[in-house]
């Protein structure tokens, strides 16, 4: 193949990624980039993305710790534990900061927000220092902005950007969206033949079994937390959940449950197929089968009968790296075919 043709293929198939760094005086670009695999890339520095001014961080000096001149007694441990529960004010301070930042003219730079930020640091250190954060009466919130959704408190309509965005998306939340679920008609229109790999039929039976197992486990987690949609559970943006749980407090537990399920499913994928009859599995044909039993219209509605759940779509994306590779190879074949045809006509 001539050099010119190779260059055309390279330019046509290369994917460009953009990485935006927020540069601070205290940390250079090298320090910010050491954690990621971003070598051998091309970078640019756009002066229009640099903030017009930088605000110095708060100078916070921790409160002195409470010291004792004797060994700690069990009664003191009990008292400390009780005080910790009573004085756990992190959530109250965080909500107050959000409310004052929305209401005050100087937003997060207002005196009230700066004072609340200092109190927040004291509250964070409370388990170590034993010094509680005392919120003065003047920093108690009288009214909350509507985007905080404090339905049991006095509220007002926020005119900040976040308030406008909140009201813009409020009416298109999942429970009021015109698209309720992945229907069989959508499956017919959206099924991608490019995702079919030679030999995927050999893995259909195992894929169908594992899809049923995955859906049952996913639905169990949704029911446990009272989460209505698959997207909320997997994306971490929970709109509403059981009253027994709190979005702020239990989000980490939800994420852990999702990661645990994905890890289990990945182990299923790595197991040798019981039906392929081959010494080694074709991992891409297997991934193709997982996609097929999820997205093909013939399999729509086969898994959650009687459960009152939508048709779940996330199962094959537990091996997303394999699906992405299948689609990439398919696109490459198409592009090479188009290029070959174009060169033939020259």
Automatic annotation (TrEMBL):
Domain RDRP C-terminal head, residue spans: 190-343
Any one biological process term the GO annotation gives: siRNA processing
Catalysed reactions, as listed in the record: RNA(n) + a ribonucleoside 5'-triphosphate = RNA(n+1) + diphosphate
E.C. code: 2.7.7.48
Keyword line: Nucleotidyltransferase, RNA-binding, RNA-directed RNA polymerase, RNA-mediated gene silencing, Transferase
Domain RDRP core residues, every copy: 44-169
Domain of life: Eukaryota
Organism of derivation: Coptis chinensis
Pfam families noted in UniProt: RdRP (PF05183), RdRP_head (PF26253)
Molecular function in Gene Ontology: RNA binding; RNA-directed RNA polymerase activity
UniProt name for this protein: RNA-dependent RNA polymerase
Protein family (similarity comment): Belongs to the RdRP family.
Function per UniProt: Probably involved in the RNA silencing pathway and required for the generation of small interfering RNAs (siRNAs).
GO cellular component, one term: nuclear RNA-directed RNA polymerase complex
InterPro entries, A to Z: RDRP (IPR007855), RDRP_C_head (IPR058752), RDRP_core (IPR057596)
């Amino acid at each position: 193949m001539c050099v010119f043709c190779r260059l055309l293929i390279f330019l046509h198939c290369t994917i460009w990624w953009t990485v935006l760094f927020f540069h601070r005086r205290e940390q250079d670009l090298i320090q910010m980039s050491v954690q990621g695999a971003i070598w051998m890339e091309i970078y640019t520095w756009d002066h229009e993305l640099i903030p017009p001014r930088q605000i110095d961080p708060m100078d916070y000096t921790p409160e002195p710790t409470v010291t004792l001149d004797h060994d700690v007694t069990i009664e003191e441990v009990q008292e400390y534990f009780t005080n910790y529960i009573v004085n756990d004010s992190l959530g109250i301070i965080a909500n107050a900061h959000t409310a004052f930042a929305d209401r005050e003219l100087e937003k997060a730079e207002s005196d009230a927000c700066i004072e609340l930020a200092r109190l927040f640091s004291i509250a964070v250190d409370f388990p170590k220092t034993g010094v509680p954060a005392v919120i003065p009466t003047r920093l108690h919130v009288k009214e909350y902005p509507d985007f905080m959704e404090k339905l049991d408190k006095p509220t007002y309509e926020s005119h900040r950007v976040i308030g406008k965005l909140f009201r813009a998306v409020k009416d298109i939340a999942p429970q009021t969206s015109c698209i309720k679920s992945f229907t069989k008609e959508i499956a017919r229109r959206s099924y991608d033949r490019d995702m079919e790999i030679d030999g995927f039929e050999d893995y259909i039976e195992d894929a169908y079994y594992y899809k049923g197992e995955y859906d049952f486990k996913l639905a169990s987690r949704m029911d446990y937390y009272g989460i209505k949609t698959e997207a909320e559970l997997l994306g971490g943006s929970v709109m509403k959940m059981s009253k027994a749980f709190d979005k702020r407090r239990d989000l980490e537990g939800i994420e852990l449950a999702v990661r645990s399920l994905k890890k289990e499913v990945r182990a299923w994928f790595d197991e040798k197929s019981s039906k392929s009859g081959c010494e080694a599995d074709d991992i891409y044909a297997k991934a193709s089968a997982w996609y097929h039993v999820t997205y093909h219209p013939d399999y729509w509605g086969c898994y959650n009968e009687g459960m009152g759940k939508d048709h779940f779509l996330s199962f094959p994306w537990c091996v997303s790296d394999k699906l992405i590779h299948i689609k990439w190879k398919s696109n490459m074949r198409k592009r090479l075919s188009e290029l070959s045809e174009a060169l033939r006509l020259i």
